[in-house]
Write a structure and sequence with these properties.
Structural class: mainly alpha
Order of helices and strands: HHHHHHHHHHHHH
Strand content: under 5%
Oligomer: single chain
Distance between the termini: 64 Å
Number of strands: 0
Number of helices: 13
Shape: globular
Helix content: 55-70%
Length: about 300
Amino acid sequence: MPWKKGNRLHAVREQDASPDIASIYADIMRHLGVPNINVIFQVYASYAHFLPLQWQMLKPVLQSGEFFQLADRLRADAYTRAHNYFDIANLMSRLDALRFSDGAKRELGEVIDLFTYNDPLLLLITAAQQQAFDGPIGSGKAAAVPPAPQNFEKRPVMVDEESAEPEVRKVFEEMKQAFELPVVLHDFSALARWPDFLGIYWEVLQPLLASPLYQQCQYGIHESAWNLARELPGSMELTLEQMTEAGMSEDDVSSVVKLTQAFSRGLSASVLNISIARIGLDGGNHVERTPHKEEMTPTALSTPPNRAA
């Protein structure tokens, strides 16, 4: 059945993958330097022929250092926006109040580090894929820098929707609605290992999501990814005609295009969200301001300050 907004998606988990798909999963993880295959690729694998076609297109790009350099720029863009435009609470002090052990704090920090690294890679991939549906995308130049992926070896524990506690399932549903996604992205699935943290993190995020400034930042990150994808080395192309010629049905082609658009939007939010989590875990940027004595006088409180014409 073709995917439509609101439909439940099928994802091919690692343990359920055919030998050919499992080999591609292993190749993707090795090239990205991550210990698990993201749910996005698991969903792509559910559409016959697509993931092998996509990986054939992507693999040369992921073998370049330019790919990781451009992802670094995207990561820095998101972090700067989050730090400069949002008042982010001290999440570490919340963990202290919840009596998180040092070991739990360390593991939580490692998970956030993983997705701080991985989300920009995925966003750059989906931005390139989205444009490759329409024709060649990339700089056309040969790769000149060797790849330099990080190497994360410890797999995060993922909490799926079916086995999640009711409070966590509620956050999952609210997250999918807020970001217009058909699946729970792995950031939230991994953070759900600590339901108390997931709850306070979602409490911090929700007011930000409602602000026009958040929408502007998300759009800006998406635009950055779109433009950076054009600087990737070589030339990538995977058009609708090529997918049909490879044996994909028209319904599957249409579904993959729509899903890529949804993933690209969702990941532009995830890159921003995980930056907010990183800043919050590092102590936040919220500063309590103590007013000066003159600011507390009745005159000062009731009279607007003079402004230059």
